[in-house]
């Protein structure tokens, strides 16, 4: 039997491999049961995470069925192990070499870029201690992944079915611990509908009707939506509700939006200087501005009176670092930077900010070990920033493509960040064994991180220039998600349909 | 951010029922509330994001909705909001209504400051509590506890965004900058990588002395000394660049910066931030002086290739973009 390269597998009689696959399924079931028992015994989440990722390597060595197989399969399996050891050594060497020779548009079957640890330089601080801890956890997961990959080159796999189940369940019922989100229920609708949209999972008509009725109950007679029925209107749940309705792609959904009163609500949140409070008597920050601009643009009610001075106010939020803060003088932060750039783009004013500085800051937010994004300089990676920071790149690309100065230098097939490393972080480190995504290993799954993790994954997979583009999907081709619009974070078809519907119906106030 | 505001629960399982406190009486069983008809949530037959509320939660919010509907401004309404906020401090409707009641009853602001302080201690990343605190300080005009409060919160989490935001608002509104630079320096001594502290430093300088030539020199020296100790600290490099943005000749020419580059060259520094800085310096020179382009362009390009392939490969696309850009601008 030949020992070199992946081609060596070809000489293993396929009959044996099929038998092994069947037993792999049994082992899957057994492993899942073992995991559930562990959780019932309240083992730590870390153990569960690492277990679920390493089961495919350890189970063949531990479970009963294998012992019942014929001895010749055992011999083949031992050869298997030798090949694994050889390949891991090869792959680790490979990860160190220059990647300029590799093509850029196909599934990367191994880590796409060498990972570089933080150099503490002999001066440890709280910041570096935290960072080192995270890098250590990620390192173990990436090592496990490389081993697993030897057995299954279609890894990493996005657990679509499990995510759909998790999210569909969350769209209908939530446990008592969700009382803390009682003022954000429209958000939970949006997060889960958007996840289903990205996964291209169908939403039954009764669910759509139920969502429409529920959101209607959240709408205030004076305009805008609250986080739940009988709550005051607030720009964030308003944004979430409008987005959720847009995802449903139906006139019935669009019609429930009381546009005239929505306009009045937006005006009631508006300050003289063009900034927006999140609700009447509420705090002012760039989220308010983003929510107001998006909602107005989507429903075709934006006008000069609403947004005069708004872009000037947003521009004051750009910091010396290049990113944007929630309010002027505060620290540059991924979530607020997204809100700022997306709002400026919708207002047609994105060229007024310092794009070079913003680009440098955004680029520096990708973590050179983990591959995911951090929210602020010297803070930790978090799966949700895959979208907040990741979406900056299509927006920056769009702007740079329009400028005489920079358009030539753009690569129409790549965003200006490492798309594969981001996908690897999300798929290898941010998936919960039972479905759903998370911030970082060791954290619990939730609908917010599932939504924004998937949104970031979609952005990392698809580059859409004006003329051409390129898709780059890490792992199984089934990992490919639907396109998301980088300004709204909605499916592009959903956006177009809504814009067409509302813009053909100008508001008469 | 939505994520912080919408902190999802840690587990999907029900919390231990808190209805078993011996002194707790449901509002529906309180005779002094007999006159109020509770308003139940009726969301129709098909559950959508439907929360399995505890009995206590339902009871309290049924009565809260009733109070809001009749616009009752009273002591009992005020107490009810306290109960509601204990169950969900993120409910902005309850906070807003509570403010209406506070104003209507002309209640004591100091007591209310203590109330919200306790909730801030338990929920330091909640938007509503900090906003409420700010409104109270606006009403009272008294910022005397605010620097201490934010200092305490920052002692537990030196990067808490809300705490910094509140602190900046207090400093700026009441002009309390006297000791802020000291405060920032202490934090930077604790953790030189604390980007929030660096950001605060910029804020203090900007709002007090401004970036005059003397101050620029002082701030550059501060950053350079920091970089010499920890070369791969992006916070210090970002600050350095931020200060230089106020300097007339930009990244080139300031003696403190020239000395830093010399120092780093002599020590064979391999910091990607330094290399990126060198490229930007060259770009500036090529921009202002065409005769330098022939020499500098290949140098800048060389550094970008090293960054892309060896020193900082995760940012490969960005380094190659810069390379293509510089070539398009400055090549013959």
The share of residues in extended strands of chain B comes to under 5%
> What is the top-level CATH class of the domain at 23-41 and 52-107 in chain B?
Mainly Alpha
Query: Helical region count of chain B?
Result: 16
CATH architecture of the domain at 23-41 and 52-107 in chain B: Alpha Horseshoe
Number of strands of chain B: 1
Radius of gyration of chain B: 28 Å
Integer average pLDDT of chain B: 94
**Derived structural class of chain A:** mainly alpha
CATH topology of the domain at 23-41 and 52-107 in chain B: Serine Threonine Protein Phosphatase 5, Tetratricopeptide repeat
Q: Strand order, biggest sheet of chain A?
A: 2-3
Largest sheet of chain A: 2 strands, antiparallel
Number of strands of chain A: 3
Question: How do the helices and strands follow one another from N- to C-terminus of chain B?
Answer: HEHHHHHHHHHHHHHHH
Instruction: Label the structural class of chain B.
Output: mainly alpha
Query: Tell me about the biggest sheet of chain B?
Result: none
Q: Helical proportion of chain B? A: 55-70%
Q: Order of helices and strands of chain A, N to C?
A: HHHHHHEHHHHHHHHHHHHHHEEH
Largest interface: A-B, 105 and 94 residues
Family (chain B): Belongs to the protein prenyltransferase subunit alpha family.
Enzyme class (chain B): transferase
GO molecular function (chain B): CAAX-protein geranylgeranyltransferase activity; protein farnesyltransferase activity
Pfam family, one (chain B): PPTA
Q: Layout of SSEs?
A:
The complex is a heterodimer of chains A (509) and B (332).
Chain A: H1 14-40, H2 45-62, H3 64-67, H4 71-94, H5 126-151, H6 160-172, E1 173-174, H7 185-198, H8 205-218, H9 235-248, H10 251-255, H11 259-269, H12 286-298, H13 304-307, H14 310-315, H15 334-346, H16 355-364, H17 385-388, H18 392-402, H19 419-429, H20 447-461, E2 462-464, E3 469-471, H21 492-503
Antiparallel strand pairs in A: 2-3
Helix pairs in contact in A: 1-2, 2-5, 4-5, 6-7, 7-9, 7-20, 8-9, 9-12, 12-15, 19-20
Chain B: H1 2-5, E1 50-51, H2 55-69, H3 75-87, H4 92-105, H5 109-122, H6 127-140, H7 146-156, H8 161-174, H9 180-190, H10 195-207, H11 213-229, H12 234-244, H13 255-266, H14 272-288, H15 293-311, H16 316-330
Helix pairs in contact in B: 2-3, 3-4, 5-6, 6-8, 7-8, 8-10, 9-10, 10-12, 11-12, 11-13, 14-15, 15-16
